[in-house]
## 1
Amino acid sequence: WEPQIADGYLYMLALEAGEVRAMWMFEKISPILYKVHTCVLPPGRGPLAAEAAKEMAQWIWEHTECWRIVTDVPEDNPLALRFAEAAGMQQFGVNPQSYQKDGKLLDVIMLGMNRPVITLTAAPCNSGSIRVTSQPRTDGPFLLIEEEAIKFRT
């Protein structure tokens, strides 16, 4: 796939054997916030779409200034809710009676995910060098560094 960028919108496709299986439209709300709209066709549902969704998010992190991706799921769509959660999104709120279907007002579940952030921890090793380990962080758009006293043997 190759993204098409135009006027604050980014369109991405998941293809299998040359056939479109899913489409994502990322709407740039602000430089650091994108809202994603998802359409997965029946032949694309399952592991293919879940993996593609994760790859789309990774592409966004690597090629844009975006720090947070959000989406909305009407309460009457449990498959879409499970799909968003499988892609790494977490619920953060409910917008009550904000979607209408067949004349009925429904709640909308709001989900989002943050850009992964790496925590680096440096610890002394017997060799006199330092050992650095990393762990993803999702609690904000910051590179967090935990420091320990490092002593080198001479």
Note: The longest helix spans residues 47-63.
## 2
Amino acid sequence: NAVVKAELSAEFDPARDPARDLRLATAAAKREGKRIVLDVGGDWCAWCQRLDAFVESDPGVRAFRDAHFVWMKVNYSEQNENIPFLSRYPRAKGYPHLFVLDADGKLLHSQFTGSLEQGKGYDRDKFIAFLKRWAPSSTLVVMSSSGVPSWSPPT
């Protein structure tokens, strides 16, 4: 449900249990035909904050993300590095780091976000290309001339 998905992507919280969160994310992804993105970082991370601001300030990016992915934040900080959870994934080169999972929680891709940056922010075209590449193929996606995605459910 929308409340669970909003809670999963709201903040980097050292007190959250990412294994429990992933169970909720996989249930939502299976139910909605989506993939999962683990957004690993922390409140200490300026680029993590820039990524949040970038997505929230761009309605097209946000709509596309929300239509195709269950976005789940995983805290990595001095308070809680979440080593037991994160040890099952490749080591991150920096933060934020994005892991794309299928609806069953299987790792599909490990994304270094430095390659999506431009100047002191994120490159919209590169970020949209990343999302499109890893969006589930069961949904047809069309970007309108205004840059806002539209999609049709599978028939």
Note: Residues 81 and 95 are 12 Å apart (CA to CA).
